[in-house]
Structure formats: C-alpha cells, structure tokens
Design goal:
The complex is a heterodimer of chains A (156) and B (434). Chain A is of the alpha/beta class and 156 residues long. Chain A is built from five helices and five strands; from the N terminus they run βαβαβαβαβα. Chain A starts with 18 loop residues before the first strand and ends with a helix. Chain B is built from 16 helices and ten strands. The two termini of chain B are 38 Å apart. Bound molecules: cobalamin. Chain A: Pfam families: B12-binding.
Chain lengths: 156, 434
C-alpha cells in the first residue's frame, strides 16, 4: 500500500476511474478511519485523494475545485461530526459550482453512541449519511449503485 | 522519581509522589463535559471514588484546533461537545468551577491535544491549575495538520510560560501514544524521552513520561523498564514519574473484554513500578464515557493493581528494546545541540518515522505488524536506525486486512467472552452503567 500523503495531495490521473476525495472535518484529527476508507474505495475501483484530518471548510472547498472529484466522502468519529458536517455542507452547497457535487458523510457522528442525525444532515445537503452502528455494508451497496445514479441523472 | 537536586513539586506532581511513596498506583480518567456544573460533578465523583485518584479536565476538539468561535456557538445552542472548552468558558469561570469543589486543592490535569497550546496554557494557569500534557511531536502528528516546525516553536514558548507562571508546574509527554496503536514500543519510549528532554530544556522541573499499553504484556514490561532506565539517564535534576495508558487502540466491545483489558493494564502498571495509570472504560468502543463509566473503571483498575501478584505474571522480554530506544534517542540528539531543532531534522530525514501517520512532516516509510507471539514489530523501518524483521509473505494491505490488524487486541479480549456466550449485547448496543 502506498500510504496517502496528505500535504503532497497530488495523484496520478487514472483515466476512466471515478475520483473520490476522502476528508475529515475541521475539528477531527482521527486518521485510521480515513486510511480504511481509502483502501476500501481503491479496492472498489476508485482513484482516491485523501486530504487527511482537521480540514477547515475553506480548504475542503479549495480541494474540491482542485481535484474535481466525482464524489466526496467525509468521515468523522470524534463526536463533532454532526455539528461540523452540517456547517461544512451548508458552506459547500452555497458555492454554485459545488451545489450538486455528490457528498456523503459517515462515522460516529455524535457523542452518545446511538445517533439520530441522519435526517438533519440529509436536509442540510448530504446525499447520504452512514452511521457507524449500521456497519460498512450499506456504504458498499451505495457505492455499487452510485455510478448508475449519476448516469441516470446525466441522461434524464 | 527524582534526579540529584529535588525541585519543589506542585499540587499534581505532589499528589502522585505521595501515593508512590505509599506504593499506591494513582488512577486517572479521561473526562470532559461542556458545562461547568457537569464538569464539577464529574471531578467531585472522581475525587470520591474508592481509589487514589487525580482529576482530569479533557478539552473539546474545537478548543484543541483553536476554533473557539465554534465552541462558543455550541455552548450557546446547547449542542454536545466532546470535552470542556476552557478558553471559551474563560479562566474566571473555570476557577469558579474548581473553587466550588468540596476540595478545591484536588489535583487536576488539563488534557488536550493541541499543537499550538499557548492559549490553553494561559487559561489553565489563570484558572489556578498546575498540570497539563502534550509535546511538540506527540500533540502535532496525531492531532493536526499544523507544520511540525510551528508546533515546536509554540511548545517551546508554552513550556516557558508554564514554567515561569506556575511554580512546580507538571507537564506530561504524550509521546508514548503515537496514533494510539501499531507503533512499536522502542519508538514510543524514544519520543517520550526526547519530549521530556525538550520540556526540561524549556524550563520545566516536573515531568512525566508516558507509555501506552500495546499488544503484549512481556513486551510492554520490557518497554516500561527501558523507559525508566532512560529517564534516569537523561532527566537528571528533574522530578519525573511514568504514566501508563490503558490500551489506546480499537477497544473490545464487550463489557467483560473491556474490563479484562483494563485490569491487565493496571497489573502491568503495578508490577513495573509505574506511578500513574490513565484508564479506559467499557464505553470506549462506542461513545464518550459517562461519569459512572469512569468511576467504575477507576475502582476496577485500583482493585486490580492492589491484587497484582508479580510472581504470577509473565516476565519482561529481553529483546534489546532499551538499546533500540537509546539508539533512536542518541541519533536524534546528535543532529543538533538544540533538541527542538534536532527533532525537526530527525523527522525530515526519517530518523523518526511514525507508522501509518498521514502528517506531511512524517516520512511515512515505516510500517509495523503484530507477530505470531502477539508482539508489535517493525515490518519496515524506513530510515530509522532500527532493525525490521518482516515475516514471510507480508502482502499488500487490503481494507479487510487493515481492520483485522487493528482489531487484534479487541478480538483477543472479546473472543473468549463471546465464546462463553455472554456479553453479546455489548456488540449491538453501547454498555451503560448510568
Ligand atoms: C485510535 C483512537 C484515537 C487516536 C487517533 C490517532 C489518529 N491520528 O488517528 C488518538 C489517541 C490520538 C485519539 C484522539 C482522540 N479521540 Co479517539 N479514538 C481512538 C479509538 C481508540 C480507535 C479508533 C480507530 O482507530 N478505529 C479504527 C478505524 C478503522 O475505524 P473507526 O474510526 O471506528 O471507523 C469505522 C466506522 O466508524 C466507519 N466509518 C468511519 N467514518 C466513516 C465514513 C463513512 C462515509 C462510512 C461509510 C463509514 C465510516 O468505518 C470504520 C470501519 O468500520 C476510538 C475508540 C474505539 N473505536 O475503540 C477512539 C474514539 C473514536 N476517540 C474519541 C475521542 C473523543 C477522541 C478525542 C476528541 C479525545 C477525547 N476527548 O477523548 C481525540 C481527537 C482529537 C480531535 N481533534 O478530534 C471518541 C469519540 C466519541 C464519540 N464519537 O462519541 C472514541 C470513540 C473514544 C471514546 N469512547 O471516547 N483517538
């Protein structure tokens, strides 16, 4: 495995492969989750740009413009995920060029174990929310379906 | 543990030294609530626990990254935070909270995780507290994308402010816990010792060196002995003690497995002469622990330490861990007469290289694995002056393989519980003792 290098941030342009940008939130420094998601996404045939932990909203927006990903995967486990997620997606959706970019979030999003943030985060602008307690399968299925959803939208 | 001249000790270090003199292990929680009233109740409960305790104020993640505006907003909106926002509350409010404890002299440490800690250090000094934690490396690489150079400068200045403003102030290195898991012991020991040297260089006279429990009791025992030996060699003239952290990686999900792991860390602390232990709770795998979770864990750990029988536990390994750690320390100190600059050079040359660390200033060429005997070993050491013994057939890391690697300890402690058919509920819902 080539461990992702956050600051170097560049990536080989793999023609044809969907490009996924993996990022933490502004206040969350956990990285094992990011490495796991990178490995999983690469195995599923994606070209991954992992921009690491403690990513301020402005930097995330700039990286979205720089890398032009097909999808953004936000991960947070420190308990601030719902707060940070709501703020960042509001900021991102306010940018006209990013308002339709597929963005999902997952992890341990609150501090109390079972969380209830799904609807709120969807309303704020995420395309999907994956709670840690549901396991990783729903995400795998989503990824298998996601490209088709984009195709359908393109032809609609 | 003290070197030649005994510097005066503050409240925190004094409490640890007094317990150590009686042969009693000090136990300490990780605990931080957003509201002062809850924080005070938590500290009071820790003080009352049936154990030799010191208190903790764990700071929230906004305060850690310097985003005090978000902390204030969360407080104003009544949102949950994962700790106590000491800067947003301010020193006055924090001091009032502590003064309202039935024992306002209770020893308390502020634990954060901030690469640029000056504001936090000023707030804790203003609030009358005298102990905190961190380090230029250990609070930068695992906790931020801040350049290491900035963290070294900020920590140098913060150490000086702390030493100047708070007589007897105590500072603990977090160097024994780089990323919580999968960092071989010799590197943890070396970083802790180097940060201890850095603290002394910047004026502190009371420090502790940390070590986080890893995957193997005999290996950990050897590591703790190596740490004590290196501390006595390098920290002359400074009062020091050693603090052990209960396992800091992916935690067992059954209550019985979690408590067994906690007790094993308490026994490890007791038989190695470690003065202080920071516990984990049965909630670790799921959520922020409640006060009740923490009190239960503190008492459980204290009981296990009291009952520890050094004759029935595995001996320390004899793998040359002391020599390996000493080589790392020496090759860093040789790089520059100033230990801060030496640390910067060491990371830029990969002489120190933390496995799986994504930080831009970490070389990222080292990797570790858990061997057949359960010990943590180097798979590749990059440019570090240590030997890697890669097992045959170490292949490409897959997502599943990665999770299997990270859950080694969790499986070892949950496995027997699940086989006995008990503790199953812990897997689907978070355990609660409230
Ligand atoms: C290792 C660790 C650390 C290390 C991290 C080092 C690093 N740079 O990564 C250290 C010690 C530094 C650390 C620090 C902190 N930690 Co921590 N940490 C852990 C620990 C023990 C293991 C995490 C881990 O490695 N997991 C392995 C990875 C692969 O899995 P994962 O992160 O659990 O993610 C899984 C799922 O959530 C999911 N997932 C995650 N993201 C996403 C995203 C999508 C889209 C999808 C589909 C799925 C998904 O996939 C993963 C695989 O199943 C956990 C507890 C545990 N689980 O045992 C606590 C834990 C995550 N930490 C926690 C906290 C609060 C912190 C701190 C804030 C300190 C504090 N107050 O206690 C700081 C972080 C500071 C900050 N600025 O945020 C809490 C979070 C509580 C909550 N959410 O309710 C936990 C649960 C511990 C606890 N019970 O208190 N931590």
């Amino acid at each position: 495995m080539a461990l992702p290098s956050t600051a170097k941030g560049s990536h080989p342009a793999h023609a044809g492969k969907p490009r996924v940008l993996v990022s933490s939130t502004s206040s969350d420094s956990h990285t094992w989750n990011l490495v796991f998601l990178q490995l999983l996404l690469e195995e599923m045939g994606n070209d991954v740009v992992n921009i690491g932990s403690c990513v301020p909203d402005d930097l995330l927006i700039a990286e979205c413009r720089r890398h032009r990903p097909d999808m953004v995967v936000i991960s947070s486990v420190n308990g601030h995920g719902a707060l940070d997620g709501e703020r960042l997606i509001t900021a991102l959706r306010a940018e006209p060029d990013l308002s339709r970019l597929p963005v999902v979030i997952g992890g341990k999003l609150g501090t109390r174990g079972s969380s209830v943030f799904g609807q709120r985060l969807m309303d704020a602008g995420f395309d999907a929310v994956f709670e840690d307690s549901a396991g990783i399968e729903p995400f795998r299925s989503y990824l298998e379906l996601a490209p088709h959803a984009v195709e359908l939208e393109a032809t609609a | 543990m003290t070197g030649t001249a005994v510097p005066p000790q503050g409240r925190f270090a004094g409490a640890v030294a007094a317990a150590a003199a009686r042969g009693v292990l000090v136990v300490q929680p990780r605990m931080g609530m957003p509201l002062p009233a809850d924080m005070r109740a938590g500290l009071a409960a820790v003080r009352r626990a049936r154990a030799a305790t010191v208190g903790t104020i764990t700071l929230d993640s906004y305060t850690r990254v310097g985003d005090h505006a978000s902390a204030r907003k969360a407080l104003a909106e009544g949102s949950d935070l994962n700790g106590f926002p000491i800067v947003a509350h301010g020193a006055e409010e924090t001091r009032r909270m502590i003064d309202a404890l039935d024992d306002p002299r209770f020893a308390i440490q502020v634990r954060h995780g901030s690469p640029l800690p000056l504001g936090i250090v000023e707030a804790l000094a203003d609030a009358g507290l005298d102990a905190t934690e961190g380090g230029p490396v250990s609070y930068c690489l695992p906790y931020s994308r801040t350049p290491l150079r900035d963290a070294v400068d900020a920590w140098a200045r913060s150490c000086e402010v702390l030493a100047e403003r708070v007589p007897g102030a105590h500072l603990e290195s977090f160097g024994g816990c780089m990323l919580g898991q999968m960092c071989p012991p010799a590197l943890l020991v070396a970083i802790s010792v180097l940060e201890g040297i850095f603290f002394r260089r910047h004026g502190l006279t009371s420090v502790s060196l940390s070590y986080a429990q890893q995957t193997s009791f005999p290996q950990d025992r050897e590591a703790l002995a190596a740490m004590r030996r290196l501390a006595s060699e390098y920290l002359d003239g400074v009062a020091w003690h050693v603090v052990l952290y209960t396992y800091m990686g992916v935690f067992p999900q059954t209550e019985a497995g979690a408590m067994e792991l906690l007790r094993s860390s308490a026994v490890l602390a007791q038989v190695t002469g470690t003065e202080r232990l920071i516990v984990k709770t049965a909630a670790e795998a799921f959520r922020i622990p409640t006060v009740a979770d923490n009190v239960y864990a503190l008492e459980e750990a204290a009981g296990a330490a009291r009952g520890a029988d050094p004759t029935t536990v595995p001996e320390a390994d004899d793998s040359g861990l002391y020599e390996e750690a000493r080589t790392l320390v020496e090759s860093v100190l040789e790089l520059d007469p100033d230990v801060g600059r030496a640390l910067l050079k060491a990371f830029s040359r990969g002489l120190l290289d933390v496995p799986f660390c994504l930080h831009a200033d970490n070389a990222g060429k080292s990797r570790a694995y858990v061997d057949q005997g359960g010990r943590l070993q180097w798979l590749s050491a990059g440019s570090m002056p240590v030997r890697a013994v890669a097992p045959a057939g170490a292949g490409r890391l897959t997502a599943d393989g990665f999770l299997t690697m990270l859950s080694h300890v969790q499986r070892r402690f949950d496995g027997p519980v699940l086989e006995r058919g008990r503790g199953r509920s812990g897997l689907t819902s978070s355990p609660s003792k409230v």
